[in-house]
Amino acid sequence: MLASLRQSLTRRRHSELPWERIESALRASTDKPSTTLSVRRLAAWRSTGKVFLLEDSNAQRFLLKRSPHAQLEAQALTRIHSAIDAAEGGVSSRLRGTVPRLLAHFEDHKCILTEFFPNTTDLSTALRRAQLQRTPEQLDEQAQKLGRWLADFQRLWGFDERARLLEPFELEQRLFELERAEYSVALRARRMLKMLELEWGLQTVTMAHGDFAPRNVLLHRNGIRVIDWEMVPSRSVPVHFDLHHFLLTVDKAGQRGPLQGPLRRFAQQLGQSYRAQAQPGLLDDAAWAMGRTSALIMLMSRQYRALRRERLSSVLSARRGYLRRLGEELDAALDAV
Fold it and tell me: What is the reported pTM?
């Protein structure tokens, strides 16, 4: 009785969602007919929307996401699984099951229905646990698996596409925005990228996750799972972008305090595994520098946009500090080129 009332209140509170169409899509996606559907809201974010966990009478679970980026994620998941199904050999078998499948897309309601990965732990939580237990070496195997996964994901798309340095992510536009916050660094980055473009010419680009970070990696006893694909770029990006985005996000968490030890170890293991599996011809200085530089510019741009949305002074201070550190990292990256 109480559970039934709770479900009724949840649906009324979120009456904007097409519940009848959702139930119909779930029935069509499984061989076992279901009589009931329980709904539980997992999370809500102002910028990325709401996430619900759905469970039917057969104990099968699904994820419902309502987000302004729903169409982008639906397109990305469809494209990824089409590529996995078309691939041959070990790459396809290793990637299969690591990315959630799209079950339905309700474009008019800006929501998607995907499979749910049970019995998983997000990487951020695992790193915290490793720190508390003083056993960071337990995650070495997961770091190596993640490095192999990223290298396999890039092989899925090939390395034939090339582009100008400033084309991916509309970096020139983002640099223009950043000049308001970090003028000297952004201006120097713009000049340096144009100079490198003349020196290096076109660079290898590929598809990317776009927000590859510990919070979007789930650990499972059989391997890793990668979720939240709503930030996939509309255009291909420098080949090492995802790796550097992940490492810079790890650095952000590490500078907050006690996570620094296991995070540093995990980052080192991940980098070594990725380098060992990556395409040998793409580990040159130009490709490496462009991957890191583009990741820095993207993260700085996102932090600056978030700064303009936030109003709490403590959050502003934390974001400003991280934005300043990213600026210092960008300056160092440009000095190293």
Answer: 0.87
